[in-house]
């Protein structure tokens, strides 16, 4: 298999050199060029036809977001953003993912061990990006009608996503009605990003979107985004229960983990709806299987509409996915499951 041809775009010469060294550790990746700013990058894209672009979010002349918007409009291609763990970095990175960037990495820093760990992650994400489907931003899905009152108070929706999930959630959540059942979401994301992500979504949705807090009651019409970082998110107390954020080791390689959330919702049986969206890896597959075995409705995003068909594929191969659904049909599929009488098949 030919190596992934990668173009690095960053205004810092030292950062370009660092990223090149990190990528050179993987024989499946070839750095074909490095550009100090977007105008040079535009010409190098034409000349070199790279498979993947790594793009700094803030550069002089034309910022990374403006360049990304042009790329996704004129020549959609897989882009991995290089971000900083700051409030500004979080805001810009989330907008980049909404515009169609496949994924992001934080700029390498720290000890040699930290750099080595960052290098492994960068290489994994660049290779995953090369296998992904590039799209020019989220689809605008039609708003779904208000649910009947009986479908609201006796359901919980649990959702997991990773690579490509930001774009997918910007499509899916605005389509949900204001009285939909509580939605608990684990989207793999650093701690510095999740609050900004929830606030951005809240501005575009009819439901209320918040970053989850420990002990918060789960209420209809509210979406709870698990905070990134050191704690898992679980449901306690049933459909009228509350959020529990707890310490613990990573599960399926992640903290918070989709598997942990799904396992906590599984005891609800048919009162739960599980949804697994685009993402790299297998987090959520075992938890969704537990949900399905307990009687929950379970939905997996279709391969054709995933940026990376990893998590849904793993769940499907385990037999955890009851129905595969394209992203455009996902809001109605979720609400259809919520409208079903508990105990129906």
TrEMBL record:
EC number: 3.1.1.61, 3.5.1.44
Modified residues (4-aspartylphosphate): 56
Mod. after translation: Phosphorylated by CheA. Phosphorylation of the N-terminal regulatory domain activates the methylesterase activity.
Location(s) in or outside the cell: Cytoplasm
Catalysed conversion reaction: [protein]-L-glutamate 5-O-methyl ester + H2O = L-glutamyl-[protein] + methanol + H(+); L-glutaminyl-[protein] + H2O = L-glutamyl-[protein] + NH4(+)
Single GO cellular component term: cytoplasm
Domain Response regulatory, first and last residues per copy: 5-122
Description of its domains: Contains a C-terminal catalytic domain, and an N-terminal region which modulates catalytic activity.
Record protein name field: Protein-glutamate methylesterase/protein-glutamine glutaminase
Source organism: Sphingomonas kyeonggiensis
